Amino acid sequence: MVGTGASGGGARAAAGVAADGTRGSTRVVGLLLAAVAALYVVAPAVHSAAVPLVHAELGLGAGHEVVARVVGSSLALFTLFVAGRAGDLRGRRSVLIVSLAGLAVGCALLAVAFDGWSYVLGRIVVAVALAAVFVSCLAFLPTVFLPGRMRKVMGGWLAAMSVGFVLAVNLAPRAASTTGWRVAMVAMTVAALAALLLVHRYVPEPPATTRHPMPDRPRACCLIAFGVLAPATLQLAPVWGWADPRVGLLLLASTLALVVARLRCPGLSMASRGRPALMPGALRAGALVAGLALGFTQVVLAMALPSLAAERGGGPESAAFVLSAFGVGGAASCLLVRHRAIAPVTGSSLGLPLAALGLVLLHAGLGADAYPVLGDFAVVALIGFGVMLAAAPQMARYLAALPRTHLGTSAALLPGSILLGTAAAQALPYTSAIDSVPVPAEARQLLRVGTIVLAVAALLLGRVAVSVAVACTAALQYLLTRTGIGDAGTVIVALAFGAAAGALVWSRREQRDRLARMSQTASTLQHAVLHPIPEDLGRLHLASLYRPATADTGIGGDFIEALHTPFGTRILIGDVRGKGLQAVQTVTDLLGCFRSQAFETEELGELAARLDRQVLRAAATRGDEELFATALLLQHDGPEQEVRELHVVNCGHLTPLEVTSAGVTEVDVPTLLPLGFGTLGSGAPLIPHTVRLGAGATLVAHTDGLSEARNSTGEFYPLTEGLIRAPYGTPEHLVDHLDAGVRDWTHHLADDIAIIAMRPAETPAPAVPGPTTGLSGCATGPARVMRTAPE
């Protein structure tokens, strides 16, 4: 849900995934939004199929087409930001309903159009309404789903839209030719009304909307002006001619608007309030480039494929079939992104060079009589797979990081970049509004330019080495296909191709081996420092989780341990100040001291004092006067302790939580200074605090990496509410629920997380084994199994 700036209410709103808070209703809302957003690709396909019939019946000319495209695209870009901002202020569901009503009106105007200009008016209304529908659905996703689930959600959402594109491209021409274009527009009107009713019935209104002003209104106005002028300039340039003074004035105005927006500093940024900026510029740049490449490639294929089909002797149906392969490949890559954690740089490094390779193969096959339609289909599917493999992770990462205060206007960047990419492709002379299908020579130019655009995008978004290697292999394949160089030349090209591929495979293998060695080292370090926590220890049933923020190291500044000693079951959990190797060294010292002294020190207060002195000595040895560690020590089943009693010493750590079937309660434990201040044991003996748990209660202790995990707006993870929503069960259930909840909540884990949940059992305690020598000469308990969860 959209945040209001207050962390409590905003966190509760964002944590509520649907009106009733159930995952089932969330899935229904997500599927419905995907179906509604699919109108964004279905409606243009229906229009493209109806264009020849409309031209014949209403006598549309070049002027009508120019006005419809230029005005429609400019107003659509303007509407993206207006509708997004209106959703932030007035409610996203209300804006979506109004937009669907506008779409129904526009389709009805098209159905009853009586001349060229009335049809143009209907097209403009439809373009504006579709923009508002799409940005409303897109901005709905971060309000319904948590940032950690955005990759899976966007993967499925874009796959559904790709399937809608495939169906529309193949069925729309047949429907228009069979029933007539007016009936097709009536069907679109009915679809828009049906979507309106479904949204009104099943989609909830987010309970919280923003009242924050725009961070910088002049800057926002300049960006909107650029968004309106840029597509108009790009589409009018090939019509008027690039030398026309009017084009120069429009180009100058749009450039000035962009320069002013770029130079003007935002007045109310998150960084200016003393907090780090929540939306790095790299995220915006990555989403912008991916959207531009997607829009550009779509237009290139839509214009070149009819010429390719005509060269094969095929008709519009053949061209539509081949074009639909773009959606097939896109759906496959989006499903791959949904089920596999593909990083944006990985998707761009692999996907965009593959798409460029597909354009090269399509260029090589243009005009070849023996090149089958199924071959064209496979190549276009490769292009769609590559483009969406790059775009989907970029879009998911961008949406996951969006601040909730200006969600709609920020989300408009994604469809806006696609529209700009479309307009940029239409700036080429052979794709302008007044031209029909390009001749084969012009289609070759289109494919060549498209290849260059994708290559540049790959260099900007992906790994340079991978992009260059794939580009070289694409060039070699093109030479092998197009040039008649004889058998000797073919062998040379084949060897060169194999050498390039072999070098790439060798480099990839070396990188994989290095990664395997690093992972093994991290695992060894983790198991050497952090011993496993057993499920049952003494008369405690335990469940634990350790998740380091830096997965490569396997361990961070948090620590956790549980031992069964002659004095009872003793547990230590805490957090060292600082990060990196120094924090790991302090953790090692603390755990070694605890494992040794827990078996030798009868009083829990004296054990805490010895840990305090250990940190103080470490600080003096390293010359770090600010070294300290927060810690929570617990003891169960000690002398004169009842089954449900726990002795607790809290050294500056977070308060533990008691979880019962009735709710969650903070345990009132006196808080002492952290370890390393040298205050423990310096005066009167330290008496632990006694906590008596309720029947069937579970005590949960954690580090601040859990409670201070932030979402994209900067709100903390609502730990108490997460435990309340958890199905009451065993400690394992609670830990699993917290682990899944924090991963869904945040798009970036910035701190280590340690959790331990414990519940007293009525079974008698087993005999205490003799201590064995462990790390740094410390005494350790028996071998055990603990879950560790590297990111």
Describe the structure.
- It is a single chain.
- With 791 residues, this protein is an alpha+beta fold.
- The chain folds into 4 domains: 1-211, Growth Hormone, Chain: A; 279-478, MFS general substrate transporter like domains (Growth Hormone, Chain: A), CATH 1.20.1250.20; 484-529; 533-780, PPM-type phosphatase domain (Phosphatase 2c, domain 1, 4-Layer Sandwich), CATH 3.60.40.10.
- It has 24 helices and 14 strands.
- The strands form 3 sheets. It has a 6-stranded antiparallel beta sheet. Strands 3, 4, 5, 6, 9 and 10 form a 6-stranded mixed beta sheet that branches. It has a two-stranded antiparallel sheet with strand order 13-14.
- Helix 13 (344-365) runs parallel beside helix 18.
- The two termini are 26 Å apart.
CATH topology of the largest domain: Phosphatase 2c, domain 1
Shape: elongated
Alpha plus pi helix count: 24
Q: Over all CA atoms, what is the radius of gyration?
A: 31 Å
Low-confidence sequence ranges: 1-22, 266-277, 486-491, 763-791
What does the average pLDDT come to? 78
Any idea of the CATH class of the largest domain? Alpha Beta
Task: Report strand order across the widest sheet.
Answer: 1-2-12-11-7-8
- Which bin fits the share of residues in helices? 55-70%
**Count of the separate structural domains:** 4
CATH architect. name of the largest domain: 4-Layer Sandwich
Number of strands: 14
Tell me about the biggest sheet?
Answer: 6 strands, antiparallel
Distance between the termini: 26 Å
Oligomer: single chain
Q: Per DSSP, what share of the residues sits in E-state strands of 2 or more residues? A: 5-15%
CATH superfamily name of the largest domain?
PPM-type phosphatase domain
The computed structural class is alpha+beta
Membrane topology: Multi-pass membrane protein
Keywords: Hydrolase, Membrane, Transmembrane, Transmembrane helix
InterPro entries: Bact_Sigma-Reg (IPR052016), MFS (IPR011701), MFS_dom (IPR020846), MFS_trans_sf (IPR036259), PPM-type-like_dom_sf (IPR036457), PPM-type_phosphatase-like_dom (IPR001932)
Region (Disordered): 767-791
